[in-house]
Amino acid sequence: MEKITLGPMPYMCVMPTLLVGANVKGKPNYMTAAWATVACMAPPMICVAINKVRNTAKGIDENKTFSLNVPSENQVVETDHCGLVSGVQEDKSGVFRSFYGILKTAPMAEECPVNIECRLFKSVECGSHLLYIGEVVEIHAARSCLTDGKPDIEKINPIVYAQMTYFGVGNQVEEAFSAGKKYTKK
User: Fold this and answer.
1) In sequence order, what DSSP letters do the residues of 20-37 get, joined into one string?
2) Model confidence at 12, in pLDDT bands (50, 70, 90)?
3) How confident is the model at residue 171 (pLDDT cuts 50, 70, 90)?
4) What count of other Cβ atoms lies within 10 Å of the Cβ of residue 183?
5) 10 domain residue, yes or no
6) N-term to C-term CA, the chain
7) Which of 109, 125, 166, 167 is most deeply buried (CB count within 10 A of its CB)?
8) Distance separating alpha carbons of residues 168 and 161, to the nearest angstrom
9) Is residue 57 part of a domain?
10) Alpha-carbon gap, residue 120 to 133, rounded angstroms
């Protein structure tokens, strides 16, 4: 397979589409983000990269809490709206119904099937963005999106982001930690 060089860039083939929730001056604010991933298993931590000038970054710095909300495909319009509009220019507190959990200062979008409530562990300066690492204090999930007590990706129907486009999640290809057992040396 012929390869060509593309130059340095933060390329990931697909990324989760999430809503980052933070109280800004006492009001819930949501922004769309795709630059997020797991940071640690024990204790459970996740991270999200946010441009320093974003209103949401101010809210995280102010309260030391935030949420990551997993929208489903049927919320793509509202989710994209939260990425197009700054909380500085428009009050986005009414786009989703907010609820609060253990931390009391990390707003979560009730309409999203999964909400991850986080206490700020650390923020790391990374040039144009701050990498916010959050310790997960609780996962809130709609009962309708669970199978055997765990979030079910087919029921959640999350949005993924790639190539400036939102996609749904496709069909299961194989079982992780099992498919590789079929490998035979060449």
Assistant:
1) EEEEETTEEEEEEE--EE
2) confident
3) confident
4) 7
5) no
6) 17
7) 109
8) 9
9) yes
10) 6
Domain count, the chain: 1
Residue 137 backbone zone (phi > 0: left; psi -120 to 50: alpha; other: beta): alpha
DSSP letter (8 states) at residue 116:
E
Residue 1 included in any domain: no
- Classify residue 48 by its DSSP letter: E
pTM of the predicted structure, to 2 decimals: 0.94
The SS3 call for residue 45 is strand
For residue 61, what are its two tokens? Answer: 């710095």
Place of tokens 């700020």: 120
Domain assignment of residue 153, yes or no: yes
User: Which two tokens mark 135?
Assistant: 């310790």
Q: CATH number, domain at 77?
A: 2.30.110.10
Dihedral angle computed from the Cα positions of residues 137, 25, 81 and 171, in that order, rounded to the nearest 10 degrees:
0
pLDDT for 168: 95
- Confidence class for position 34, pLDDT limits 50, 70, 90: very high
Specify whether the CB–CB gap between 78 and 93 falls below 8 A.
no
The residue segments making up the domain with residue 67 are: 15-182
Residues of 55-86 as b/e, b for ≥16 C-beta within 10 angstroms?
bbbbbbbebebbbbbbbbbebeebbeebeeee
Residue 47 pLDDT grade (very low, low, confident, very high; cuts 50, 70, 90)? very high
